[in-house]
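Run log, item B.
One chain of 966 residues. Sequence copied directly from the ordering sheet:
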Amino acid sequence: MHRNRTTLQEHAPTNNKHVYSREQPKKEQIQELYQHITQAIDKHKALPHSQVIIMGDFNANPKGSSAHTPSWKKEIFHFFKKHHLINTIKFFHDSLIPTRVNKEGSIPTSAIDHIYTTQHIIEHTFFSDVHTINPTLEFTTDHKAPFIIIDTNLFFFNKSLKTQHDLSTYQPSQRKKIKYNYNHMDEEKWKTYTERSSLHLNKNIQQWLPDAYSETRPSKYRVNKKWKIIKYSIEATKYDKLVPLKPYKQLSHYKNDTPLSIRRLKNKIIVIHDTLSRFSKRKLEHTSQTSFDLISPRKWDDYWSHWPSLKWNLYNINKLFEMPIFTHLPQQISHQNFRQTKQIVQKGLYTCKELLKEYQLKYDLNNIDKFIIQRNNNIISNQRKMINSIMDRQPRTISLDRLIITNHDTQEQFLTRCPETIASHVNEHFQTLGQSIQDVEAIPHYHNINDIPLQFRDIYRRLSHISSNTYDSILVPITLEEVTSTISSLPNHKASGVSGITYEDIKHLHKDFFDFIVNFFNNILTSGILPNGWNNAHLYPIPKPTDWDPILSNSSILQPNNRAGLSGESTFQPLQHLTHTIEMANLKGRKQELWIGLQDLSKAYDRINTSLLKLSLQRIGIPNKINNLILQLFTNRYNQVITPTGYTPQYKVIQGIDQGEVISPLMWIIYYDPLFAYINTAPIPKEDRFTIIVPRKKNIWDSPLNDQPVTYTLSVQGYLDDTTWVAPSLPALNRLLSMAEDFYKIANIKINKDKYRILTNNTSLANKPVQIQIQGETWHTTTLGRNDCAKILGIYVNAFNNPRPHINKLISTAKFFTSILRRKKITHNHVIYIVNKILIPILEYRNQFSFLTHRQLLFNSPSLRVIALQQILTMMDFLWTADYPSKDELALLSSLKLQQTLLLKRIYAFSSINLFFIPNIDVRITGGYSPIINHIPNLSKSDLDSLRAKRILFLDQVSSEDGSFL
């Protein structure tokens, strides 16, 4: 990859004399110098992959007082900061080091000599410091010299292939990347790797940080140095040729797996077409500017002057076949043999095309057989590839080898294949997310809760019910056992990211190396400082994965309707609440109007305001040291986008958090939690909250007036960035959404209004256009119909609690799999695998809140009923419900070969003497023993509703005391 580097050396005038001219004032001289520097940097930064080093005597201290360093002198340092140039001395020492000795003494007191460089060069820098000039030299100076040590690999790299982006068919090849073949590593090789890793670690420690294990307080410099020791030691161990490399296939600018014989024949057909085109009378007449019969001999000879070479090309085609295709071609083309020769060429073209079809068919059949055999083998070796092949799945990729760019002023569009232009626009897109730089820079920065609008200040105050010792376990030093157990549980064959370190590399390190990693992690924990390299890496080790147990396991820290990723929580809980709400709203005799709004958050993680995230972390009592560590992960970050021609130049991330980070989902629910707290605690009118009150029968002999009322309320339910709003009316839904909009404004959250979906069980407004009004803004959308359903977290819901649309989706899913499998050449093992591993889990998940009738059951057939019965009985053995198995059910269980648990043995023993257990569970209804539904088969839903309405639930209610008569 070509890199553009520039190095600037400057010397600013001192405070005591004019350097450039006696007439020009010193301030103007310095400002003119600043202008030259800024122009040079601006010009160079506009180039792709630009890298800058600027060094010299600035005669100004960035941290100096206004008396010694006026504000206009500091403008150049503000410019460097704006363009993300880094002071190398400060980077490696946490503060500026004085470089100039004042007249009053011999100790340097003023930091006026600096080296500034771009982030990419910093990543390849070993060290930067100041050096005392040897006094025995021929010159004297009152300055110390700053210096920087840079890895030479930054300046020497392999030349890339010649750029071909001017070609219309250009498809850029992927950049060459070193890939290690861990599959070829055996126990002996890993043993050698482990020993070498210790040697390289000790060597790098002695060279770069001899006091690595000292009790010195960790600094930015020491943390960065330890990370580099870890990174370079692992790299050096692999470079010892201990880990074999995967063979690299040099890709051309296009990929073509077609056999050479077919490609040759296609090329020859093009040659025949070109030759045949010269036999066009229209072309002859156009070239000669006369009719065919009147073409003069001179013009005729000029036109056919290339016939010998054309004839040679046609004869050359015969070499591809056993039998010649072109024979008896004339030496010259004349009016007399023109037609006959044209027919010979046409016949040869037809023959070649037929042969091409034959070759192509043979190649396709061989390919089909080859891939079928490969797919059969993949059921054992590569199930994912086998599934993709059978299900016709193609990986979704975005090819950034060409780009359509729109001019926002003229709205004109143009296509570009220039890698530099593509890289520039891609970086701009990911940096601003479709906003202007001005809009991004206008995002407010919240220093404390007083900067937040008044209505949310109480929400962001520290939660009083969270104990101060809740997070004590986070600050406990990390142990070697924690690190080794965590690393051993990591999966293999994962991408290494920018660091180049894979999980396989870490797992096989020496014990001394693990001790150093533990020391490194604890330095981070005690100092609250992260290495700069982690701001660029796509993947990096998480020092303490159990740090977040207090949040993940404590149910009182976050709101109950915002619990994604917490201990024991999954998509089941929010879906259960939503389906329960729909069911309750459509109860016969108690039906209530229900409105559901489904929101689509646009680039939720990328829009997080880190200053507000800090207040959200403080709200739940996260210690400040951990807060700072988290914020360091998501500030001063530099990203690169992978394109077909390599990485784009680095760009500074100015908002949001990385969606791919392990910690990001937890950060999002903490960031989003104040909205749920605001809605849950706000004085919302009763008529704006969806509330269901149902009577709970505690005793069938009591009056209905004594039934216990059960109240259920729901306004908002969230799972990560999926938010569902529930209201009893459309105006109430609009008011809830308006309240949420206040929070979205301060949190920089954008709602995709075009993707709003509204559901209602109001028959008169189903499948009708409605108005959504949020804080004065109005737009129209159409509600879903009575027979329509919306997909929420992978399942389909219907506001009328109508199961038919959902069942149709299940049927269409099964039919889709049937149509796919029917036309595939696969074995019964493939079918079993696809059905058990893909189809059944999909159907189970989508149907987890639905109840099928007897006729809709899949196993409702004589051939499958036995299997279903055995599965149900087996499940009863392991999953006990409120109703323990009866004597008859125990008789059925006894015939099955089940694991005889102690509980099951005792139940069998008691049942043999007619003793049965009735669990004392609160959900049971007092007043009877034997449920009536166990004795009356095939009760319909209307029959059950009628019995419940009459409070008849047990057989005891309709039978004599001895149970002999009704």
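Observations after the first pass:
- Residues 16-23, 158-176, 248-254, 537-553 have pLDDT under 50 and may be disordered.
- Residues 256 and 263 are 9 Å apart (CA to CA).
Flagged for discussion on Thursday.
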